[in-house]
Amino acid sequence: MRRLFAATLAFWLAAFVPCAGAQGQDPPSVAQQQQSAEARFRELTESMQRLHGYLAKVGNQDDIKILRAGMTLAQEKRIQDAMSQIRALLDQQKWDAALERMQSVRADLVQLLEVLQNRNLDLQQLLAKLEQLKGYRNDVDQLVKEQQSEKDASARTEQLQQRMESIQQAKASADQLLAEQQALKKDTNALGMQAAAEATKPLADKEAQLESKANELAKKLDQIEKDAAEAKPSEQPAKPNEPQPSEPKSPQASSNARSAAGAMQRAQQQLDQQKPEPSLKDQDQAIESLQRTQKELERMAEETRRELDKLPFDEQAKKQDDTKKATDTLAQKMEKAEQEQQSEDGEPVPGRKSVQQAVPKQKAAAGQLKEYKPAKQKQQDAKEDLERAREELDEAINQLRQQLQDEVLRALEERFTAMLAKQRELTAQAKTLDKTRQKTLTADGGIPASLKERIEAMGTGEQDLEVEASDALKLIEEEGTTAVFPEIVSELKSQLAKTAKLCRALETGSALQEKQAEVEDTLTLLINALRKTIENRENGQC
After folding, report:
1. Same domain, yes or no: 186 and 113
2. CA-based angle 389:390:391, to the nearest 5?
3. What is the CATH number of the domain that holds 263?
């Protein structure tokens, strides 16, 4: 509603401009326009008062402040009384006095329009909200990184524990295989030099079974050694004062198990040929290979155990607990902001629920670590919650940036539209002053002091527009709205500087009026370009 009043005032103000140059119009026409302006302004102020009362009931504090400021300004400037005075001057055909009073009232109306539009407040609120969300996003991103690091530490622990379990299972298999091979050797040795097929066949079958088990063990050991080798690059480097780790040994357990399987195959072939005595040599080789496999597995188990002992479970638990506390603090901060914002716009803080959902999972992970148990899954679940919060914040930030750009475009359109209206007024003044100048030159060809003051005042107006262009240029450069506008606005600023300089040189003729026409053309170009951009954005074309 506040913006509707601003738009109404802007439209009506544009219609009020011709009155400022009304010397060429008939008195009845000018007086009627002025009377209509009075009535419209009275309707506007009455509507503002009614809206102020409504907003006071629903609690819209921002618009209340703006409307109150607008009504106070209108009362302090006594705009309604000034309009009545202008109509009286027009009725008396006191054109110069009426023109001067009109210019003063119009300046007050422009100021009132700026108060009602208050684009600066809208932009400030959007910028503040954007910075808030970006702050939350940075906090969540940091938490995601911390949670990933803690999950990696747990994954390393879990990986070592799984490797230890695999080694122990392989060690049990090797022990069982060795015991069976030793028992088979004993049975083979009891047969003597020669034996019937009936006696060697069961032993050959048993050897074939042991060979199969040895090959299976070799495959399992291949995987254990591969996993251990792949895990080496991710391990933490030794500290400067710590001894450097020894070079990793080449895989031995799997090759020894495979060597045992080969010896078992040869022993089985000897037994199939009823040659128990020669098979004993191969069985001895199988036993020796299995014993080497046992020793290698014991070495691997000891190495893995040392790595596990070096893992700082207490430190991991503390880090996870610290991350949980930081996540909980952020969740509470976001919840508080949401409660405050709901009284204003009723919108929830993006990502707040996802951040809250990560906290209990982080707490459970810290508890597991305190019990010297890895917590990779809980940490992964918490990380996914935080990543979801980050995605929600990213989406909200992108939407807010789009909204901010829309507001900037509309603010620029309103600014340039107001500047164009003021420039047209200054251009009209220049033409009027130039005509007056031709009629009122002093005897020595000089300019009367009163006329000189009016020209200088016109120059001040041009200088004010230059400041407006400079402010618009800063806004465009800061927001990066478009790559085209900065060059045009920079040219506008330069044009206004030249126009103001001509006014300070007391120029009122064609040189000044041509520059003023250039300013109007540039402003018109900017306004049309902005409106086209706004239209395209509303239609989803950019």
Report:
1. no
2. 90
3. 1.20.120
In single-letter form, the type of residue at position 404 comes to: L
Length of the chain: 542
Which residue is listed with tokens 């596990």? 308
Reported confidence tier of residue 314, pLDDT bands at 50, 70, 90: confident
User: Rounded to an integer, what distance in angstroms lies between the CA atom of residue 116 and that of residue 122?
Assistant: 11
Distance CA 476, CA 487 (A): 10
351: left (phi over 0), alpha (psi -120 to 50) or beta: left
- Per-residue pLDDT band at 403 (split at 50, 70, 90): confident
CA 312 distance to own-chain centroid: 35
Sign of CA dihedral 454, 458, 463, 467: positive
Contact between 377 and 157 under an 8 Å Cβ cutoff? The reply is no
Q: Is residue 171 part of a domain?
A: yes
For residues 444 and 128, which has the higher predicted lDDT (pLDDT)?
Answer: 128
d(CA 16, CA 34): 8
Region for residue 118 given its phi and psi (left: phi exceeds 0; alpha: psi -120 to 50; beta: otherwise): left
Tokens linked to 425: 């007024």
Last residue of a domain, one of 288, 311, 334: 311
Q: Quick one: 162 and 60 in the same domain? A: no
State the DSSP string of 157-175.
HHHHHHHHHHHHHHHHHHH
Determine, yes or no, domain membership for 286. Answer: yes
Query: Which residue in this structure is represented by tokens 């009504």?
Result: 71
- The domain in which residue 204 lies consists of 156-233+250-311
Asked if residue 1 has pLDDT above 70, the reply is no
Is residue 22 situated within a structural domain? Answer: yes
The model's pTM: 0.58
